[in-house]
């Protein structure tokens, strides 16, 4: 039984989920949608946000009905064997997703900040901070996120906003010149950046008011979609609708072009990367917590905090599987396929079972 001071409020849950979603996608999402949908890529983000909201509402309905984590829900509705399969799947899913994010963060830090630092050391440092957060518990960690997240997002948005002086509105006009098939395909690619709501499946026992899960995912989807939409539209207007796709990290290339009067900020891109690293930390913490909660529930352990030491080498090994940007991009493609069962199909399956069980019980 969790004490009340181990639980998080609705407002804290909203901010925590948003901070999980706004991470690695900031770097590459404008390039990804530009490659597939061209100047209409921003429309793909809106469609992706709608798809995310649908998946989030499915997860929210399940959490509000059962008020337990997905492993306990599955065990009650589907039995031990299926629960074991679902639990192992989610462990692999969070392991691979965190590997992509870890490798991306190490690539960016080594390219823009610490050029001579071994990538393995950068990855290990990020992992160590994340697992320390698991060790101290979710409530203190979320309280820290509540302080850091608004400051980081305001600063990053302000930096991007300063780029508007170089923006050209005609770079996103005319609208709907791309075939809808391409726009929709690009919207599916946005899910990797927009996802994060599936973590709610494992945060349910820590929510003070799980019945407000629908409010949590609705605000989460709205804020995340609008933020990525803002970043992408500004990037298109500054770099150009035909040029964005040629930059690996288009947002940072856009920020590098900022010139302050008197050269007050000589390396504004370095400041932006520092802010981004804070966001990457909160993204990874969500995945680490979820993995620990899965193992705790599968084996009926009393607490998950000491599992951080066990998972550290496993996550480090996974993060080093992709050796370069190309391999990491391929791994991200595979993870994008795993999002469908993790965020949509499995929650929908469990929600359907809960309705059938209730109907069977009444009969």
UniProtKB/TrEMBL annotation:
Q: What is its main location?
A: membrane
Tell me which GO cellular component terms the UniProt record holds: membrane
**What stretches pass through the bilayer?**
12-30, 42-65, 77-101, 121-138, 145-167, 187-207, 219-239, 270-294, 306-325, 337-356
Asked whether the UniProt record includes Transport among its keywords, one would answer: yes
Query: Which GO BP terms sit in this record?
Result: spore germination
Gene3D superfamilies linked? Amino acid/polyamine transporter I
| Topology class, membrane | Multi-pass membrane protein
Keywords attached to this Swiss-Prot or TrEMBL record, sorted alphabetically, are: Germination, Membrane, Transmembrane, Transmembrane helix, Transport
Asked whether the keyword NAD is assigned, the reply is no
- Location in the cell: Membrane
| Listed NCBIfam families | 2A0309
Q: Which family does it belong to?
A: Belongs to the amino acid-polyamine-organocation (APC) superfamily. Spore germination protein (SGP) (TC 2.A.3.9) family.
User: Any idea what this protein is called?
Assistant: Spore germination protein YndE
Species in which this protein is naturally found? Thermovenabulum gondwanense
Gene name? yndE_1
């Amino acid at each position: 039984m969790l004490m009340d001071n181990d639980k998080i409020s609705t407002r804290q849950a909203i901010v925590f989920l948003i901070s999980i979603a706004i991470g690695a996608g900031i770097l590459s999402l404008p390039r990804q949608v530009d490659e597939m949908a061209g100047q209409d890529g921003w429309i793909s983000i809106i469609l992706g946000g709608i798809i995310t909201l649908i998946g989030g509402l499915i997860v929210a309905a399940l959490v509000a009905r059962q008020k337990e984590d997905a492993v306990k829900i599955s065990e009650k509705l589907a039995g031990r064997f299926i629960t074991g399969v679902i639990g192992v799947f989610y462990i692999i899913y969070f392991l691979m997703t965190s590997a992509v994010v870890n490798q991306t963060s190490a690539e960016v830090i080594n390219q823009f900040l610490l050029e001579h630092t071994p990538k393995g050391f950068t990855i290990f440092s990020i992992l160590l901070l994340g697992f320390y957060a698991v060790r101290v518990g979710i409530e203190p960690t979320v309280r820290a996120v509540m302080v850091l997240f608004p400051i980081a997002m305001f600063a990053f948005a302000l930096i991007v906003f300063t780029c508007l002086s170089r923006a050209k509105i005609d770079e996103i006009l005319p609208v709907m010149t791309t075939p809808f098939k391409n726009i929709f395909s690009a919207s599916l690619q946005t899910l990797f950046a927009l996802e994060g709501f599936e973590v709610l499946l494992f945060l349910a026992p820590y929510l003070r008011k799980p019945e407000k899960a629908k409010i949590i995912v609705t605000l989460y989807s709205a804020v995340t979609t609008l933020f990525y939409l803002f970043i992408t539209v500004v990037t298109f207007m500054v770099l150009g609708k035909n040029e964005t796709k040629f930059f690996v990290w288009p947002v940072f290339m856009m920020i590098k072009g900022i010139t302050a009067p008197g050269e007050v900020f000589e390396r504004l891109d370095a400041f932006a990367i520092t802010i981004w690293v804070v966001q990457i930390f909160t993204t990874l913490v969500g995945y680490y917590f979820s993995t620990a909660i899965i193992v705790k529930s599968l084996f009926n352990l009393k607490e998950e905090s000491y599992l951080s030491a066990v998972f550290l080498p496993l996550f480090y090994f996974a993060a080093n599987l992709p050796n370069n940007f190309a391999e990491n991009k391929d791994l991200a493609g595979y993870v994008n396929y795993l999002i469908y069962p993790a965020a949509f199909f499995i929650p929908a399956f469990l929600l359907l079972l809960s309705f059938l069980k209730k109907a069977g019980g009444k009969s």
